[in-house]
Amino acid sequence: MRAVVVHPGMDVRVERVPDPGPCEDHGAVVAVRLAGICGSDLRTLRTGRTAHRPGHEFVGDVVAVGAGVGRWRPGSRVFGSALVGCGRCAHCRASDPLRCHDGSRVLGEGPDLPGAQADYVYVPAADRSLHAQGTFSDATALLLTDALPTGWAGAERLDVGPADDVLVVGLGPVGLCAVAVCSMRGARRIFVADPDGERRRSAERLGAEPLDPLLPVPEQIREHTGGGAHCVFDAVGDRESVAEAIRSAAVGGRVALLGMAVAADTPVPLRRVGAYGLTLHGVICAPSAIWPGLVPEVTAGRFDLDRIVAAPRPLRDARHAYDDALAAIGGAKFPLRP
User: So what's the architecture of 2-134+305-337 in CATH?
Assistant: First the structure.
């Protein structure tokens, strides 16, 4: 089969690799219809030191299952969780593989679990790592694999509600999904900060108010709100954005650092955190733990998400799709279609 292989030096290739082997008892093989390029894929592209096969966001059709799989059969239309566990421990049985006793894993982030930017992907613990696609478009299902659950988890952690002024810093797919979730939860006002005009327009279509990219964000948000945002989402993760997010929060505010965006050496202005009584939340989630609350809202039509996903590129054009994602055009998710 074909698969994207990323080599050191930001070298993206489509290569022939072996098909997934026979399924273990609880595993499944999925023929991929759509695979997303995540921001974490781009970070690994820039910094990776060994060749790897990326991709933890996928929508597809089950083609083979192990003897212990009960929910799926060949032909089942599914989307997958970016993060998987053993499927057997108490946490996995409770749909929370983030706390898996054997350690949770992300598809495509290790040689023993190749990613989904390929014709086929092997999925362990398939009964707990896959969800029926139902009537969702492929684009919406793709967002349910990672970006939308992360935005949802952040809004739940911050308990966003009608009395809250919200700021979202960074308008990639995760940031845009956070905007959509906060809008659905009835936030009083949602402000957004991003240097890219098309990204700001995308957020505006979701109900947000863009800030001026030429002026300091904390000063603008204090002027608009009379003291700062009650809830702030950082969806960038560099030292400037984290500091900006914290300095934009009101006294007693809540700040969410979304997903895996935050770099390991990012400093945090703790004096500001203490003086303002801020609460910081690191937000990384197992999508399968979020689906029970989120999927019914998507099914009910509470979100208009397809515009967040760009038109798919053929798998053979993966290099160009990665170039578009690196250019961050419009904040969109850039998918590949095998």
Answer: Alpha-Beta Complex (3.90)
